[in-house]
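Let's do one together. I've listed all components of the complex below, 689 residues spread over three lines.
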Amino acid sequence: MPARTSAGSIALWRSDSGRPAASADRCPHRGMRLSHGFVRGEALSCIYHGWSYAQAGNCLRIPAHPGLTPPETIRVATQQIEEADGVIWVAVGEPTDQPPRFDGFVPLRSLTAQAGIAAIEAAAGAKKNANGFLRQSLHSEEIGFLLVEQEPDQTLVHVFIGDNATPLNRILASRAAEALRRKAEGVQTNGISA
Amino acid sequence: MLNEWYPVGLFSQLSKSAYKTALMGEPIEVSIAADGNAKVTSHTGRELPVRVRYGHVWSSLGAPQKELFAIPEADQPGRRFVDVGVVRVRCSPLRAVENFLDIAHFPFVHTDILGAEPHTEVQNYKVEIRDVEDEVWATQVKFYQPQAAKSASGGITTEYMYRVPAPTCSVLYKTCPPRPSEWDVITLFVQPLAEDLCDVWPWMALFDDDTSMTDLIHFQQTIFLQDRSILENQIPRLLPLDPGMEIPTRADLTSVAYRRWLKRHNYTYGAQLVAQ
Amino acid sequence: MKLYDYILSPSCYKVRLMAALTGVKLDIRPVDFHPGGEHRGPELMALNPAGSIPILEDGNLLLTESSAMLVYLAAKSAPEWLGGATADEAARVQQWLSFSHRLTASLGGARLHEMLRRPGNIATLQAQGIAALRELEAGLVEQSLCGKRFLASDRPTVADIACFPYVALAPDGGVSLDPYPAIRLWSRAVRALDAFIEMPGIHRLHELKPEPQIAPGEE
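Okay, and this is what the predicted structure of the assembly comes out as:
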């Protein structure tokens, strides 16, 4: 699937053995987005000509030349990736520590808001912490919103819910996230209301 | 590229009221004049040169030095001529042509029609830039195809020739199942609207007495629509003419020759020059 | 059963797909929608004055609404696709069948404009398309929170087939599917169904087949 980091677009994928990987979202052959590709075994293949890449980034196979071992120079850049508690983290540059953990929370869903972080904070009436995590209370349940800037006016929001939330409260939390997005997008368009 | 001929419409669809379109950012209008001839004017009212050939109206913003390229098969009796219909694509007109020249994508993009795994190998073929005509030609191209054409009754190894007679046009000649000594002709005429937007006009001259016109149109539209979602997702949008950004292999000889030919002629509308 | 069909029409594809999934053989009568405009010609207007395709003919039955065609195919050959096991399910199917017309109008309108240069206000069509996709995403999220992978239940119904084509082809109209993870999972689930068929613009899921090998003696 396609994703973005501050280093650029990536193709996020999971190999058949379950390992996640982050490859640059562009095949060096003719520039096709690798996020449109397909995973077989431990390799990601480009949908255009089927060139396949290992999780380390090197090209493994070029179907037009089945007998050829692709030169080492044919590769895609990769980024370091960690999976913890249902969250996938991709590093930009060399990480100096582990990704943050959100104790007591489990991931619920992700959605994209056409609003900047400031508009979301205004709509929520709360600020995010240093990790980008913003907490809200809903019917005595805690909801967490992990805010990731994509553009100055576009934010990727990962919604978290308390790990003992009931199924009904999970649905309510999803709807609360929709409501927050609606409000934040209003703020973004119209400015902060009194 | 201002002095080249470009397709701007289907002759059969012209009317007295102007059909508004564009060429390389310039708005133009195409219509039928009182004498029944096609007429093309720029938005300033300037009359532009016109040709009607291969079912399409052709024009230019400049003064073409050569006549529109010839396709002798278009005059052959017994052929059916198919106006496939225009499709707009958000891509460089040069990327559209280059995709048309490529066969290695057949098993992945035109799966079970023009190609299928595991028959993915591209055998060596011959490529040249013919000096007299100043055209790119690829010959002796072969590929195994599960359904090469509407007229094919099963998988065959198809032979191809590819020809680039103008920067945004390509002609392909392929094995004709009902008449093995002739070639079926399939063309892509690309109208550059902007450097990253084009109207693509496919056209065909085939030997096929059995298939309905609508089925012939639908077969070719299927193929082109399968390519469209690739074309709209190539990065960078503009075709790189300098090495560095993209890596060709021996299967890409036609596209390599095409890029070299474009650069030699300074055909850079829709291209980028310095590798990033 | 005769289907007046255009290969590039997502609405016609709904019927072709449903027929493939339920094992029904259709007699396809191709219509030169573009560039010929045959759907607005005398023969087809006589059948359907609305000038739209698909049209489905089965004996005396003539249908011109794609949702009705899906229901007809399911009712005749594979009623498990109707999703009427509970009142809840039946209602959900109706909800999403009705909703699918908004996808046709918005995402379909944007696609016709961007690809076939039909008239329309592209910004409005895209905005309406995005609004519809967000609703679909929210609906699929809630279904998955209840352990269900499809719109009305844990198995696919006519509702999924009605919504799938225009959603899958949203990028044709300049509407990206990148921001909708639940839609991506649902789309993959639909494309992985037994007997699934594609249409131009919807790629085969090559990952479903392991890399085939050339058999000894072949080629």
